[in-house]
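ugh ok fine here u go
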Amino acid sequence: MTQTFHGFDTAAMFKWSEPAEFPVTREQLSAYARATNDDIPAHLAGDLASPVFNVVPQFKVSAPLTLTMPPEALRMNGLHGEQDFRFHRPMVPGMTLVSRAMPIGIIPHSTGVTITVRSETTADGELVTDQYVTVFIRGAEVPEPLGEGPPDHRVPRGDGPLVAEVTRGFDSDQTFRYRDASGDEMPIHTDDDFARSFGLPGIILHGNCTLAFATRTVLAATCDDDTSRMKRLAVRYSRIVQPHEKITTRVWDGGERDGRRIYGFETAVDDGSLCLSNGLVEVE
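structure:
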């Protein structure tokens, strides 16, 4: 029997999905680096996964959940809301990863509803990455929460010094290259007419592509480009970004917490409005 919560299909709530395997290849890691204009040699050579690549292996278990849970008429209204990575081991070629996902929350907001999915990715039985993916369903309504949203990841600006401020631009074919490297084929990123039919101004960047560009600045400012030192990366997607726009990422020192250095970051588009907010990085 189908289980519903105000039009949302809840049959999968609070249950782990069937596991899915993902063999990591050097070619995949290198292609993702090129698709996000990454210039770190280990990423370009495919020796090591860039931080945001960690979303790719779990995509095939989390994406079907966030796509099929909303009411049918609203299933194409989803936008990436938040992302929270916890890195336990470097992801390298030759690994056979196993991912599973579990929806943990359906939460109402003023203009829509968020679905939060927790996922785990392992190799040889050991955790590589766990993460929380939140998708915002525009125009959806539920009267009360079911479950819970993602963990908090705000870093107050306070008196922490600014450690980086970098502006980057995108290529005209960025969304097409990112689609091919990530496996995220949602047509709002590559079909202008389709995007406009859903109330968008045209093709928009994948949220994780925008995050990958911002993370390049973060890695340089907080880890000296040593990806293995990054232990957590979390962010809220606050605004859509189009390929013609430029983004400026600011990183500030947030002090120490539980033996790790904490940094906050945010990314703004040309008019100063934030497209990435509540950014958190934990570094060892």
